[in-house]
Amino acid sequence: MKLARPDIFHPRIVLAGCPALPEGDGDDAGLVAALRHRGLHARWLSWDDPATLTADLVILRATWDYSDRVEEFLSWARAVPHLVNSAQIVEWNTDKRYLDDLDRMGVPVVPTGYFEVGEQVSVPAGEVVVKPAVGAGSAGAQRFVDASAALAHAAALQGQGRAVLVQPYDPRIADGETALVFIRGEESHAFTKGPMLPPAGQSPEFDETGTYATETLSPAQPADEIWEVGRLAVDAVLRLFDLELADLLYARVDVIGGPEDPRLLELELVEPSLGFRQLGQIDRDHAERQFALGVEDVLQRSGLGPLSHRAF
After folding, report:
1. Cβ(13)–Cβ(59) below 8 Å
2. Residue 311 predicted with pLDDT over 70
3. Which residue among 120, 207, 218, 280 sits deepest, i.e. has the most Cβ atoms within 10 Å of its Cβ?
4. Angle at 261 between CA 259 and CA 267, to 5 degrees
5. One-character DSSP codes across the chain
6. pTM of this prediction?
7. Contact 210, 223 (CB under 8 A)
8. Where does the sequence pass through the membrane (predicted)?
């Protein structure tokens, strides 16, 4: 695009998808317009497109194949000049052993056993979930009632060079997960994700691209006790990385259970769907505007403010 004022700097912004979904799954369809309304011009690219490395700001949105290319992805993330969320956060959050950090910092998390490659796996009595420690979209996650089958699946994952998580199956998951969305570190909105894992012995059904398990989503109005789990998780990240609220452009905290004993299942800081499509138009416009304001703030604090004059 030819700019009318070549003496004015227009930051080049990329929303990063993946080869199978270079423009995401449609949930973020309004972000380009919301950014444009703030005078910011953004385009979608697959994260592995070389042009991402010359962008002024790259925003991770649908990089849902990273678990199959994790070392390549993390190397790329470190090479991007300005990445949101930051490469430091991405590296920490791609490995679900972050649950141990959150647990130590007082966040109520689902009980989790973590087993490195080559480490002997143990499973508690009863139904369990076994999943890779690095994974997205429920790929590799399965439920088991038979301990030997659970151990066999864990061994297969370790044989692929993948560390393993083992969690007791919480029957409350049948009611779905509450996804709490934070934008610029503040509460934004929430939605419910229907149960993704089928009964023991079966694998999840994936979308036609094979990048994520299909799920049923619906709007939600969580109780404050559930939001508190999200607030604790976001606060833990801010303390762990010595960040301000605005440093965390987006976060999604997935919680199971109701007000009595809500537990964090996952904290998504890399590429979570933010459920914009679950909002009415007025609320969606507001949430997307908050996202755009957050991007604008990131640019300003990085010395890449929109429409700032630059010497040529």
Report:
1. yes
2. no
3. 207
4. 95
5. ---S-TTB---EEEEEEBTTBTTTTSTTTTHHHHHHHTT-EEEEEETTSGGGGG-SEEEES--TTGGGGHHHHHHHHHHSSSEES-HHHHHHHTSTTHHHHHHHTT--B---EEE-TTSPP---SS-EEEEESS-STTTT-EEESSHHHHHHHHHHHHHTT--EEEEE--GGGGG-EEEEEEETTEEEEEEEE---S-STT-PPPB-TTSSSB---EEE----HHHHHHHHHHHHHHHHHHT--GGG--EEEEEEES-SSS-EEEEEE-SS----GGGS-HHHHHHHHHHHHHHHHHHHHHTT--TT-B---
6. 0.91
7. no
8. none
Q: 57-81, pLDDT tens digit by residue?
A: 999 999 999 988 999 999 999 999 9
Q: Dig out the tokens for 188 from the structure.
A: 């934004």
Integer Cα distance of 154 and 163 in angstroms? 9
Measured between alpha carbons, how far is 64 from 137 in angstroms, rounded to an integer?
7
